[in-house]
Amino acid sequence: MGASIAFQLASLGARDVVLADRRGIAAGATSKAMGGVRQQFSTAAEVRLAQASIRFFEELGSPLFEQVGYLFLATTEAGLAELEERRELQAELGVPAERVDPSFVDGLRTDDVLGAVNCATDGVADPPAVTRELVRRALKLGIEVREGTDAATIDADVLVIACGPWSAELAATRGVELPIRPLCRQLLETSELGLPDDLPMVLEAETGFHFRRRGDRLVLAMTDPEPRWGFDEVVDESLIPDRLERLQHRYGPAAETRIERSWAGLYDMTPDAHPILGEVADGVYAACGFSGHGFMQSPAVGRALAEEILGETPGLDLSPYRLERFESCASFPEELVL
Ligand SMILES: Cc1cc2nc3c(=O)[nH]c(=O)nc-3n(C[C@H](O)[C@H](O)[C@H](O)COP(=O)(O)OP(=O)(O)OC[C@H]3O[C@@H](n4cnc5c(N)ncnc54)[C@H](O)[C@@H]3O)c2cc1C
Questions:
Q1: Any atom of ligand 1 within 6 Å of the Cβ of 336
Q2: Architecture of the domain whose range is 2-328
């Protein structure tokens, strides 16, 4: 997120832009992410952020972004009704999410599927590689990168807090309280298996279980049975057999695979799972609280924040994401946190 904002600021002609990370580039959640890029959310607020970012990913193209689609499968009548309701909202906003016959994916088990929705312009990306590409472009435009530097120590006219799960800590140094809590999430990666290049991200609508291709392997994830709040990034190995079983049930070519690698990272959760964007104190801006889906929103957020910081009217309406919404209770919970 910081890399995107710095790149957009530099693109708009800002000078003296410093991208500071107290560890290194893409050291936080970005290096842990699934890399899903989807416009299929349950609220207009989230749909718009991802939708406004798709063009950027399309321009990046393969191998940084593979536009393979995002296929939601419903196995119950209730799940199908919710999926259809969301599809209608997305279609109204111009997202090309369509009812499909999921058997177009070879090897996918579909005999228990009542209905499916795919958005062909969604896809999967490589978050650390995209971040490094943004930094490379931003450096060419004259920004300065300071790794191993705490942003709190920099004397600046404008401070942008884009510290993911650690954002509340930096905000506190400026007397600002941000309602952001870290939530531990884990991903599992299989052994190598033969996979088609165009395998979409596959999601079970009711359970949230999902998987994607990364090279010759699959990466899988699902919400934990109990939320694990806190900064500990620990894999709960007891969940691995269940996740593997789900994969093998759903995807035939994974029948003989095993889990070879697992890791955990942190979501930066807000009370309504929408981000906090914009000025939060004099000269202090926030771009955090992405609640597990900030990577796919970073192009649009970076652009809008940069425009606002430079005194322009952002092309994207940022009013739904202001910090003040928590005072007035005008929050609107996003249901599709995966
Ligand atoms: C397991 C997992 C799966 C995910 N899957 C997806 C997905 O499929 N799609 C998607 O869009 N998003 C996903 N996300 C969320 C996504 O990774 C983030 O929202 C996104 O990468 C934006 O990250 P960020 O830049 O806000 O935070 P981070 O990547 O965490 O970066 C914050 C940086 O701030 C630095 N920092 C902290 N404090 C300071 C300080 N005081 N001074 C200077 N630097 C500081 C840290 O070192 C860190 O590098 C996932 C996250 C996790 C954990």
A1: no
A2: 3-Layer(bba) Sandwich (3.50)
